[in-house]
Amino acid sequence: MPISHFSPYHIPKTFIFSSISVSAILTKEEQEESKSIFNFKAYMLEKASSVNKSLEEAVLLREPFKIRESMRYSLLAGGKRVRPILCIASCELVGGQESTAMPAACAVEMIHTMTLMHDDLPFLDNDDLRRGKLTSHKVFGEDVDVLAVDALLLFSFEHMATATKGVPSKWIVRVIGELAKS
């Protein structure tokens, strides 16, 4: 069987590793679990929904209203949420929980959205539409949009620093540092 057919969720019974069959390594219960097929589409939809809910809760509409409204307008405009889902999946892959990774996942999406908002501004691409909606600078004006871009970047770091629970602070600082370099 080609290596491309292997996944952590489906290990064929005939797979031989170091001359030992999987049936010699896995219990009957583990073999039955390995038969289940990972539903990628369902996973993506479930995680995207969780990310959307967390983003909605993270960026509340408060002072300064215009800037926050611009941030929310672009951040909550939709999308596949691939980057935050990869963040969550990476955490889960090593035994972590979605809730532990969610602040970092939201921060990654905030940074991604900020780069799109920045790219849409008149002095760069001057795009009028993004995801079928008017771009933020067309709705709120360039001045507000530039401030929203800056605020969203800074807020992504604040959100990670304040919303992450159960993780040593030195790890959080390191992740913030890595994101700042990206």
UniProtKB/TrEMBL annotation:
Pfam families: polyprenyl_synt. One of its GO terms (molecular function) is metal ion binding. The keyword Metal-binding applies. Its cofactor is Mg(2+). Keywords: Magnesium, Metal-binding. Signal peptide: none annotated. One of its GO terms (cellular component) is cytoplasm. SUPFAM superfamilies: Terpenoid synthases. InterPro entries: Isoprenoid_synthase_dom_sf, Polyprenyl_synt, Polyprenyl_synt_CS. Gene3D superfamilies: Farnesyl Diphosphate Synthase (1.10.600.10). PANTHER family: FARNESYL DIPHOSPHATE SYNTHASE (PTHR43281), OS07G0580900 PROTEIN (PTHR43281:SF24). Belongs to the FPP/GGPP synthase family. This is Heterodimeric geranylgeranyl pyrophosphate synthase large subunit 1. It comes from Abeliophyllum distichum.
